[in-house]
Amino acid sequence: MDVIKPDLLWIGSRCYRVNQTVNTASLGGSQLPEKYVEHDAYDDDCVADEENYQIECTNGRYLTAFHVPSQLFGVIVGAKGATRRRIETETSTKIEIPKQGQDGDIKITSNNAKSVSAARRRIEIIVIGARMKMDFTHFLSVPMVEPEIQETFLDFKTKVLGDNEIYGITEKYFQNPHRLHITIVLLTLLDNADRALAAQYLRECEETIVSQFKGLELQMKGLEIMNDDPSAVNVLFAAIESEAMQAMSDQLHEYFCNKGLMQRKNDHVKLHVTLMNTKFLKNQEENSRVEAFDATKILQKYGNFNFGRVKVKEIHLSQRHTSGTVGYYEASCIIKV
C-alpha cells in the first residue's frame, strides 16, 4: 500500500482508509501483535446512524438485525472468529451470525445504541469491501435498442468491416445490436434478498430522482476508447451527449452508494455505449488468447460518427449473462423515465 495514496473506501458520504491486514501465519503462532486502533472520527455522528438503522430497545438492551448474504458470513467472522471478536471487543457488543450453510439476519446487541451503530457500520464496511472483490452480477442500464440506433450501429459496423484500410477486425468484436445500452451502476447481488432490495431502491429513485427528468433526450455521437493508445484497444464506445442524463446518472450512482450496495470510485458516471470489445471475441472463442485491436484508423475515419438522438424511456435493473425474449438482458425491475 502506498502510504501517500492509501486505498479509500466510501460508505455513503463517509470516506475510510483501508489498512493492510496482518498475515498471522507469518508470526509463527496464534498471538497477534499489539494493534493500533485508529479513532473513529464519526463516533460523534452515531446519532445519525441510529436514526437510519432500525434499533430496538428491550429492558435496556439494544438490538439491530439486518440482512447480509450468507456467502459473506465468512469474511465477517474472520479466521477462527478473529474479525467478529475484534469488532465485539472494540464496540462492546455481541454479534450473532447464522452458522455456515444457514440463512438469516445478523444480530448485534449491546447496552448502548451508539455501540450497536458502530458495530453495524464496521460490518457494512467489510461487506462492501468483499463485494468489491467479486464479479458484478447486475447493473442499472438504459437500453439503447431503438430501431434508429440499431440501424446506425449496423451501418457503422458495415463501414468498419468493409474498409480496406482497417485490418484485423472481424464481426465477433462487435456488440449484439439487441444489447446496446448505457451502464449507470454496477452491482454485485448475491441472493434474492439482495435483488429485491436493489429493485426497491430503484423504485424509490423513480419518485425521488427520475421524476425530475421527464422527457429526457440524449445524443449518441462520437467514438472514444478506454486507454491512451489507439493502436492497442480492448473497448471502443460511443459517447453520450446530455447534461440531464449525466445529472440523473450521477444522482442514481450516489443513491446506490449511500445505500451500501456499491463502492463510489468516481465523482461522475462515465456515460458510454460499448460498440466493440475484445471480451466479445473471447467469449465466443474459448481457451483463446485475445489481443487488443488497432483502432487508429477507426477513430481517424469515423471518430465523429453520429448514431442518432433518442428519448430515454426506461431504466432497467439488468442481470448479467442473460437474454430476454427480445434479446436484451433480463430485468429484475424496470422503471419509466
Largest beta sheet, briefly?
4 strands, antiparallel
Strand order of the largest sheet: 3-4-6-5
Mean pLDDT: 86
**General shape:** elongated
Structure overview:
This protein is α+β, with helices and mostly antiparallel strands and 337 residues long. The protein has helices spanning 46-52, 73-77, 82-91, 113-132, 147-161, 192-208, 243-258, 278-284, 296-302; strands at residues 8-11, 14-17, 56-58, 61-66, 94-96, 106-110, 138-143, 181-187, 217-225, 235-241, 272-277, 306-311, 314-319, 331-336. The protein has a four-stranded antiparallel beta sheet. Helix 1 packs across helix 4 (113-132) and helix 3 runs antiparallel to helix 4 (113-132). It is elongated, with a radius of gyration of 24 Å.
Helices, strands, pairings?
Blueprint: E1 8-11, E2 14-17, H1 46-52, E3 56-58, E4 61-66, H2 73-77, H3 82-91, E5 94-96, E6 106-110, H4 113-132, E7 138-143, H5 147-161, E8 181-187, H6 192-208, E9 217-225, E10 235-241, H7 243-258, E11 272-277, H8 278-284, H9 296-302, E12 306-311, E13 314-319, E14 331-336
Antiparallel strand pairs: 1-2, 3-4, 4-6, 5-6, 7-8, 7-13, 9-10, 9-12, 10-11, 13-14
